Give the backbone structure.
Amino acid sequence: MTQPKFGPSTKAIHGAPQRQPDRTPVVTPLYQSSTFHQPVGSGEEVLYTRYGNNPNQISVAAKLAALEGAERAIFVASGMGATALAHLAMLRPGDHLLSSEWIYGGTRRLFVEEFGKLEIDVTFAQPDNPRNWRQLIRKTTRAVFVETPTNPLIRVLDPEPIATFCRERGIAMIVDSTFATPINFRPLEHGADVVIHSATKYLNGHSDVIGGVVAGTEAVIEEVRQLMQVWGQAPDPFAAWLTERGLKTLAVRMERHNANGLAFAEWAHAQPAVQTVHYPGLPDHEDHAAAAEALDGFGGMVGLTLAGGPTAAEIVLRKLRVAAHAPSLGGVETLVSEPRFTSHASLTPAERAAQGIPDGFIRVSLGIEDVEDIIADFEEAFSSL
Ligand SMILES: *Cc1c(COP(=O)(O)O)cnc(C)c1O
């Protein structure tokens, strides 16, 4: 019997739906156990939660693989754990990694501060022009890393030219797809080899778990699993269980995040207090065409450059009541942060301005509250400027 094709909402809830035996629980039970009874005198696989074979780890990973359209996926202790392990699986001493310039601050630190010690060279390319990739390629280049959509300007890369560039040269393409989730974008369908997520964000979606995902081929994910085992990056069973629970509503949450993102961006666009709105769903965003082509939804992340600069940002952040001033993103609650104090704190104001993130820039992660209430919250805050 051929497997029917299921939609993303069904996959997020069931993985591959199957009839279950009578009187078994509908919800995967929590196996909050580090170890399992082992048959005496048996050479069978040892069950131990750090090895990644706890049932909760396996169950959530199967659903994530189904959502990404991957042969296999693995759930690990954090997004950074996923990024580190995916690259360790693909690269060896002497190899070169070509990374996009527009990446998460923690990822940049990993590449710059740690990979050198492993004799992995990393260079950074301005990712929006294929010529930049071609100029920086070396004989030793083994992988290309990109993040899309990006933080905090919500730039959306056209995946096809980068995938073609990689395929022609036999280079692995690794994509951090945290901002999109598999509901809005599935990198493997566009030629990527490996997908990374911080499950801390939308996948779990409730701001109460730290977790990460790597999805790809059976061989790559088995390598990641072995690295996870020896580098100690396995997730706690409860984190896996909570993420599986959060995942069940991923599709409906993303529908609301997408709707709230667009409604908020359109509202903000008309506000005199706002100089620029960064949202790929707006027709004047520089990547609107690429985003409309590659994505199934524009997401819930909106960047705002306030006309009044950092003083205005401070006044607004002190007034907001619905939106919480906190780093991170992708939860059911609206969160606001300032890149100058978080992801881009290591740069000078001039360097930030040159990147399009002047002081007075705030990043909004639209939650799934009633969007009228979020807008009213900002309206009230803007009224005191
Ligand atoms: C948060 C984030 C990470 C790191 O994830 P953690 O779960 O905090 O380790 C990596 N990439 C992106 C795009 C992120 O937003």
Q: What stands out?
A: The two ends are 64 Å apart (CA to CA). The pocket of pyridoxal-5'-phosphate is lined by residues 78-80, 104, 106-107, 147, 151, 176, 178, 198, 200-201, 210, 212 (CB under 6 Å). DSSP finds 14 helices and twelve strands in the chain.
